[in-house]
Amino acid sequence: MKTGTIITATSLLKDTFFEAAALLITQYNDKGAMGFVINKRFERTLNQLAEFKNGLPFPIYDGGPVDREHLYFIHRRPDIVTGGEPVCEGVFLGGDFAAAVKAINNSKLTEQDVKIFLGYCGWDTAELEAEIEEGSWEVTNGQDMFR
């Protein structure tokens, strides 16, 4: 497994938070893994959150069940958003969120450039591998995470 891998939930996860979910793995090391659900929109948009009420409506995705008090984001515009960590070719995790929001509100970043998440998915050492082995997740390739 490596960062940038996309995994999809199998029928074993039916009736759970992860039913029909596609996840992007953004961090993977000997301590575990971190990722985000990339195909489930949250019911509110960025401008519906008090801190961003004067901005444009921009989708937020339901990134995962962990730390639902914070926003996270991936993007493919390091020329606009500095400080992100490379995930895979052309995709970065985090960075200067204030710059990202400003660029969204100036229409310089679109849904094709950035994806914002509420919460994340996390696994301890070997936990994700065990879930894949038991058949809960299928490792896939080729899905565009910005669709």
TrEMBL record:
GO terms for cellular component: cytosol. It comes from the Bacteria. It holds the Pfam family DUF179. InterPro entries: AlgH-like. Belongs to the UPF0301 (AlgH) family. PANTHER family: UNCHARACTERIZED PROTEIN YQGE (PTHR30327), UPF0301 PROTEIN YQGE (PTHR30327:SF1). This is Transcriptional regulator.
